Amino acid sequence: MRIGMLTGGGDCPGLNAVIRAVVRRGTEHGHEFVGYRNGWRGLLEGTSVPLPLGSTRGLLPRGGTILGTSRTNPYKVDGGESTVLATLAADRIDALLAIGGEDTLGVAHRLAEAGVSVVGVPKTIDNDLSATDFTFGFHTAVQVATDAIDRLHTTAESHDRVMVVEVMGRHAGWIAAYAGLAGGADLVLVPEKPFDISDVCSRIERRHFLGAGYSIVVVAEGSVPIAGTMSLTDAELDEFGHVRLGGIGTVIAREIEARTRFESRVTSLGHVLRGGTPTAFDRVIATRFGLAAIGALDDGEFGTMVALRGTDIVRVPLSDGVAHLKTLDDSFYADAQAFFA
């Protein structure tokens, strides 16, 4: 088969590991690969590169994606689907491998319904895809955030400050909860649990009353206050209708300092979380996903995506990957807050 491949959405540690596994195993099986540049934009613009076996050398520890990526949505472009189908036909593509998160897989699902032979590979550092237990990139992001929190403990203690650490997490607080628990944060705010800034401040004041001279607050970028408790500015939307996030940590730090008089600082980790080399765990998941994706293509199981269930890599319908988001469960959230004192 002549297989097209793309990486869509945000960049993520492990994307190159998937590309490496797909091309290496697929070449053994006699397949030929074409990589589309910058996600779905490459199929709209007809920009592609060949992916011979030699192009995968050295990719396993390399972050980012050699194919480039974007948040382009072909269904937001006039005639987008027709353009994608025409590109696939002109390039003689027999099957398409889409590597991405909720939005990328959502487009892949719609193309599958339009008759394209598609297999999906789930990717997101937010770990919010319901069809899979974990996505590659998540553990790397958590490790980066945990390392940052460890470092912030020392400077917070030295200056008797409240340190607010903003991490990624649009709809789900998995990164915030995991990193907060691993890094010994004193308070974790997540999108699933709207917060009351008055309660946040009273908890910090209680910590200081009990003798703690500093506090660490981890907040996911998608966290929101309980209606009427704190105002936020409006933000613009991307091509998939999502609010462009970032900045909630600054607002919270400003409110904490104004209400408690404790000096507060904010560190927004942002894209640092999704950059750099993937952890060993993410390299293994990404490699296994790539191998499983070739298996699905070989077996003609189109309209599916690979997923991690326990220790097994399984195939599930693409529709399962975009059916609903996997949000942080109450028990894990409770564990992340358990050590507040």
Q: What's this entry about, in short?
A:
The protein has 341 residues and is α/β, with parallel strands linked by helices.
Task: Explain what you see.
This protein is of the alpha/beta class and 341 residues long. The chain has two domains: 2-136 and 278-321, Rossmann fold; 139-274, Phosphofructokinase domain (Rossmann fold). The protein is 38% helix and 17% strand. α5 crosses α6, α6 (174-183) runs parallel beside α11 and α7 (197-209) packs across α8. The longest helix has 22 residues, at 138-159. The chain is elongated, with a radius of gyration of 21 Å. It starts with a strand and ends in a 5-residue tail after the last helix. The model has no long low-confidence stretch (mean pLDDT 91).
Order of helices and strands: EHEHEHEHEHEHEHEHEHEEHH
Category by helix and strand content: alpha/beta
CATH fold-level label of the largest domain: Rossmann fold
Report the major sheet. 7 strands, mixed
Helix fraction? 25-40%
CATH class of the largest domain: Alpha Beta
Could you tell me the strand content as a percent range? Answer: 15-25%
Number of helices: 11
Count of individual beta strands: 11
Radius of gyration over C-alpha positions, nearest whole angstrom? 21 Å
CATH architecture of the largest domain: 3-Layer(aba) Sandwich
Strand order within the widest sheet? 3-2-1-4-5-10-11
Quaternary class: single chain
Principal-axes shape call: elongated
The first-to-last residue Cα distance is 60 Å
Number of domains: 2
Outline the low-pLDDT stretches: none
Provide the residue-averaged pLDDT: 91
